[in-house]
Amino acid sequence: MIFNSPFRSAFERANRSTEEPFGLVRLVVGAIALFGTVIAVVLAVTGAETRALQLVGALWAVYGLVVGFTSGVLEPVIDGLFQALTNIGLMRAGGGYSAIESMVARGQVMSAAEAYAERARNQPERVEASLRRAKLLAESLGHAETAALELDNLRNAAPLSGRDDFRIGLALVELHERHLGDPGRAMAELRRLIDRHPTARDIRRLRSALAELKSQRFDAPPP
Predict the structure, then answer these.
(1) Which terminal residue of the chain, N or C, has fewer Cβ atoms less than 10 Å from its own Cβ?
(2) Residue 79, pLDDT score
(3) DSSP states of 130-198 as a string?
(4) What are the boundaries of each domain within the chain?
């Protein structure tokens, strides 16, 4: 389920792999490289080891290799594997959602929403089916408040994985910002996502979105 909004890209990435698994790896390697750089500069300046600066280039070269390998090789492979396993899981659980999507195409929107609710009772499908139902409620049936309430209840009912928590949070941001006209709630949800998922993909995009919403709300001229 993907809403049309400035958060579309982040939501697409969240559907694949929300928590950036190698974010901490890059952070640690970067910290080591920075620490080594400081030590090398101190040794060179004090004259204790004039060749220490040669280590700086090597450290940052290793950092570049780590970033390139994790971002360009490992993450795409893991994302593809995750998507394949997700599709297999959906097929085993009930053949995906093509039948419900066909109902929507035929104009049977309310029936489709109920079908998603029925699928959401199945534990492995509860988040995906609930997000699809929320999209249908907000965009096709005009029940954005109901969609937001159901997603809030879903999040509060039981502990969720980081990925699912992030996906629901993005959907709530979209509902409050675009459908309910409540930028305050949207900003609060964005702030929560940023604080709870600091290594998530597109975290800079979310920070920019938060700053933009703040600017629109607090810098707008009075009516």
Answers:
(1) C
(2) 59
(3) HHHHHHHHHHTS--HHHHHHHHHHHHHHS---HHHHHHHHHHHHHIIIIIS--HHHHHHHHHHHHHH-T
(4) 8-217
The string of DSSP codes covering 57-120 is HHHHHHHHHHHHHIIIIIHHHHHHHHHHHHHHHHHHHHSTTHHHHHHHHTT-HHHHHHHHHHHH
Residue 95: which region, alpha, beta or left (left: phi > 0; alpha: psi -120 to 50)?
Answer: left
Q: Considering only the top CATH level, what class is 8-217?
A: mainly alpha
pTM: 0.61
- Angstrom CA distances, 107 to 56, 101, 111, stand at 63, 10, 9
- Classify residue 190 as exposed, middle or buried by CB count within 10 Å of its CB (0-12, 13-18, 19+): buried
Q: How confident is residue 151, by pLDDT bands cut at 50, 70 and 90?
A: very high
> Residue 137: what pLDDT?
96
